[in-house]
Amino acid sequence: MAEEVKLFGAWGSPYSRRIELALKLKGLQFEYIEENLYNKSPALLKYNPVHKKVPVLVHNGKPVAESLVILEYIDETWKHNPFLPTDPYEKANARFWARFIDEKFWPAAKKAMASRGREREEAIEEAQQHLKTLESELKEKKIFGRESLGFVDIAAHLLFWLVVAQEAFGVEILTEEKFPAVHELYQRLADEAVFKECMPPKEQLIAYLKNVSDVEPHLKTLESGLKERKFVGGESLGFVELAANVIVWLFVAQEVLGLLTEEKFPTVHEWYQRFADDAVFKECAPPRERFIAYYKALFGASTASK
Predict the structure, then answer these.
(1) What CDD domains does the entry give (predicted)?
(2) pLDDT (tens digit, 9 = 90+) per residue, 272-284?
């Protein structure tokens, strides 16, 4: 009986791409299922009812969530081309550094991209302190010392997303001058054929991130202004809602781009839902499927199974 392997992911999720990379390094056949993070599928909610996030790996009907947990599951289930060393100490060390990247470095880097002013400066400084730690480890060859991509290398694929985000947001965290060893690691990863196959096209990802950067501050303002209001002007659709019919384009666009989620902007999401449920609005709005086809063609964000 053939094994069933499914990966629930999202185009703009680095954690989904991490698992895709791991599966391809193992040479495994799998079905990729693109999730709409605005309208999550019943299957995703069934398989990951706790976090309701991607990625989720489903192996013969059994779900595994959280990317580093999934990585270990893949390595223990399919033992060829191992990611983790066999020595218990080296294995523990690899786990430690993978978590350091996910739990220390990456949150600081994301904060640097999302913030402004003094807050951004502090986040850049924190992210660079973590890069200094990685730089020291790399120079002493304590980690990343394998001939093939391993557990920590797969975790470090986030460096690709960092380099792209730097260009999109105009932020400088990782440079070859400041962190030559870390930059060399990034370059080695980026030059790997299987890595290139799994990562989104750079220009499309830059466009995606710039859209997020441009839209999110305005959505935060709208989120604040809508608190405890059914509609902006009262209990029924008004002038602002008529002007804001373009919000429909945003919500449909984010199915392709991942710009907006209920978790980030719950009040705006609720407002949109009331808007979209209005009978007159439904009568006037163009078909949703045509919107989605338009944005897929515009941004090239593939949602086909892989």
Answers:
(1) GST_C_Tau (cd03185), GST_N_Tau (cd03058)
(2) 677 667 777 667 6
Tell whether 73 and 103 lie within a shared domain.
Answer: no
Strand 56-59 relative to strand 62-65: parallel, antiparallel, unpaired? antiparallel
Query: What CATH number is attached to the domain comprising 32?
Result: 3.40.30.10
pTM for this entry: 0.75
291 half-sphere exposure, CB direction, 13 A CA radius:
16
By the 10 Å C-beta count (0-12 exposed, 13-18 middle, 19+ buried), 263 is classed as exposed
> Are 73 and 92 part of one and the same domain?
no
- Residue for token digits 């978590």? 99
Start-to-end CA span in the chain (Å):
21
| Look-up of token digits 């008004």 | 238
How many distinct structural domains can be found in the chain?
3
Residues 166-197: pLDDT tens digits? 998 889 999 999 999 999 999 999 999 999 99
